[in-house]
C-alpha cells in the first residue's frame, strides 16, 4: 500500500568509460561514498526506466519504483499524469559526470521513436521521444546543434580538407539550409563508402592542425580525440557544431533531431523516460547513419543558453517539455511550505541537509535528508514542508501541471 510519505530512492550508478574517476569522480563525492580505483562513475539514474529503475521500500519490502507505479498508478502519479502518460513516470532524472567526450548523437521525436522501436527494438528500446535539459553543476563543455551557415562557410574555407570531402561546395552566394543539408548528407554517406579516403582526410587535417602554433578549442579537442578514435567521422563533425561552455546554473534544452555531445563537466540531466540514442560519431558503438539523416534537424543557429527564472527561493527552468520541469531551491535556516501539489516528484539534495515534514495519521513525521539523498514524492503527498538549519540546496523535478 502506498502512503502519503516520501520514499527514499536506491539508485543505479552507470559506469560508462567516459565517466570521472578517482579523486575527480563527482558522483561518489555527492553520495559520500569511496570511489573505487580506476572505476569510472558516469551517471546516477533516478526514475522508473526498465533498464535501471530506482528501488523503494513499500510495506517493508524493496521493490522497483517501476513496479510500484504499475501497481499503484493513481496514488503514485495522480489521475492526470497517469492518464496522459499511460501509467508511467514520464521523466528520467540523472546526475551525469563526464571526463571524456560522449558520442555525437541525436534523439528521435515521438513519431520517429515509435517507428524505430517497432523496426529495431534492440537498438531503440523505447517507443518514447527523448528530449532533455542539461544544467551545469559546476561547468559543462558541449557541442550543441549545427553552427549558423555563415560560420560553417568560414569553417570550410579555413579547413579545405573538410570542404573537399563533400561532393558539392558550400559558398556564401549560393548556399542555404537546403544546400547545406544536401552537402552534409553526401558528406556523411561518403564516410561509409570510402573509409580509406576518410582516414586520409582526417590524417591530413591532423598534420595541418598539429603544425599550428596556436590552436583553437575545437582544434585541441580534434587532436585529443584523434588519438582515441583514429578515423571516426565524428572527428570531422566536430567542426560543424557549436562549441558551448556552460557556467554553474546555466542550461541547454535539447529537442529531438539536434546533434549534440557532452565533452566534459558535471550536470543535472532530465529527459523523457527514454534511452533512445542515434549515434553519429565518436563511438565504437553502432552508428545508424541512415536513420541519423532522417532524424537530423538543420536549424543552423547558435543554441539558446537558459539561466532559469528566479521565483522566491527557486530557480525554475521552463521549457516546452510536457514530461518534466526542474527547479533548484536554496534554503538557509528557512522552512518552505508546499501545498496542493499535483503529480509525482523526485527530490535530490545536492548541498547541506534537509528536514522533510509531512502529516501522516494526523502527526508530523520528519524525515532527515543529507547531501546525495533522493526521494520519490507520490502524488497523494500533496502537502509538506521542507526545512534546513544550514545553507542547503536541493533539486525538485515534477510534471508540469
Q: How would you characterize the overall build of this protein?
A:
- The structure is a single chain.
- With 401 residues, the protein is α+β, with helices and mostly antiparallel strands.
- The chain folds into three domains: 7-146 and 243-288, Sandwich (Jelly Rolls); 153-237, no CATH class; 309-398, Jelly Rolls (Sandwich).
- The protein has helices spanning 26-31, 65-71, 73-77, 79-84, 110-119, 149-158, 160-165, 177-193, 195-210, 217-229, 234-237, 289-295, and strands spanning 7-8, 12-14, 43-46, 55-58, 61-64, 91-98, 104-106, 132-146, 241-247, 251-254, 260-272, 278-281, 309-311, 314-317, 325-332, 335-338, 345-351, 353-360, 363-370, 374-377, 384-387, 391-398.
- The strands form five sheets. The chain has a seven-stranded antiparallel sheet, with no helix packed on it. Strands 2, 3, 6, 8, 9, 10 and 11 form a seven-stranded antiparallel sheet that branches. A four-stranded antiparallel sheet has the order 16-21-18-19, with no helix packed on it.
Summarize the topology.
Layout: E1 7-8, E2 12-14, H1 26-31, E3 43-46, E4 55-58, E5 61-64, H2 65-71, H3 73-77, H4 79-84, E6 91-98, E7 104-106, H5 110-119, E8 132-146, H6 149-158, H7 160-165, H8 177-193, H9 195-210, H10 217-229, H11 234-237, E9 241-247, E10 251-254, E11 260-272, E12 278-281, H12 289-295, E13 309-311, E14 314-317, E15 325-332, E16 335-338, E17 345-351, E18 353-360, E19 363-370, E20 374-377, E21 384-387, E22 391-398
Amino acid at each position: 500500500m502506498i502512503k502519503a510519505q516520501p520514499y527514499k530512492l536506491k539508485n543505479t550508478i552507470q559506469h560508462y568509460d567516459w565517466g570521472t574517476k578517482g579523486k575527480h569522480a563527482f558522483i561518489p563525492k555527492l553520495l559520500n561514498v569511496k570511489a573505487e580505483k580506476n572505476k569510472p562513475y558516469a551517471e546516477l539514474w533516478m526514475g522508473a526506466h526498465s533498464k535501471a529503475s530506482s528501488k523503494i521500500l513499500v510495506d517493508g519490502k524493496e521493490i522497483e519504483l517501476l513496479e510500484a507505479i504499475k501497481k499503484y498508478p493513481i496514488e503514485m502519479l495522480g489521475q492526470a499524469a497517469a492518464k496522459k502518460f499511460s501509467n508511467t513516470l514520464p521523466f528520467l532524472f540523472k546526475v551525469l559526470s563526464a571526463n571524456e567526450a560522449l558520442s555525437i548523437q541525436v534523439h528521435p521525436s515521438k513519431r520517429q521513436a515509435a517507428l524505430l522501436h517497432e523496426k529495431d527494438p534492440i537498438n531503440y528500446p523505447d517507443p518514447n521521444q527523448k528530449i532533455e535539459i542539461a544544467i551545469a553543476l559546476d561547468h559543462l563543455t558541449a557541442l550543441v546543434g549545427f553552427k549558423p551557415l555563415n560560420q560553417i562557410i568560414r569553417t570550410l574555407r579555413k579547413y579545405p580538407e573538410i570542404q573537399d570531402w563533400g561532393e558539392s561546395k558550400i559558398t556564401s552566394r549560393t548556399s542555404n539550409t537546403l544546400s547545406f543539408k544536401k552537402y552534409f548528407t553526401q558528406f556523411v554517406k561518403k564516410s561509409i563508402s570510402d573509409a580509406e579516403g576518410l582516414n586520409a582526410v582526417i590524417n591530413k587535417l591532423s598534420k595541418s592542425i598539429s603544425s599550428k602554433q596556436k590552436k583553437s578549442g575545437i582544434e585541441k579537442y580534434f587532436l585529443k580525440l584523434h588519438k582515441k578514435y583514429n578515423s571516426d567521422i565524428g572527428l570531422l563533425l566536430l567542426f560543424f557544431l557549436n562549441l558551448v561552455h556552460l557556467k554553474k546554473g546555466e542550461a541547454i534544452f535539447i529537442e529531438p533531431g539536434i546533434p549534440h555531445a557532452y565533452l566534459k563537466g558535471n550536470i543535472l540531466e532530465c529527459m523523457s523516460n527514454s534511452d533512445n540514442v542515434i549515434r553519429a560519431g565518436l563511438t565504437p558503438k553502432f552508428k545508424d547513419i541512415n536513420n541519423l539523416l532522417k532524424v537530423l534537424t538543420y536549424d543552423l543557429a547558435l543554441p539558446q543558453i537558459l539561466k532559469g527564472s528566479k521565483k522566491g527561493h527557486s530557480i525554475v527552468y521552463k521549457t516546452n517539455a510536457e514530461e518534466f520541469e526542474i527547479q533548484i531551491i536554496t534554503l538557509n535556516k528557512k522552512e518552505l511550505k508546499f501545498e496542493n501539489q499535483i503529480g509525482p516528484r523526485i527530490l535530490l539534495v545536492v548541498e547541506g541537509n534537509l528536514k522533510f515534514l509531512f502529516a501522516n495519521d494526523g502527526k508530523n513525521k520528519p524525515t532527515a535528508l543529507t547531501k546525495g539523498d533522493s526521494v520519490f514524492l507520490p502524488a497523494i503527498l500533496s502537502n509538506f514542508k521542507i526545512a534546513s538549519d544550514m545553507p542547503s540546496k536541493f533539486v525538485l523535478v515534477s510534471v508540469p501541471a
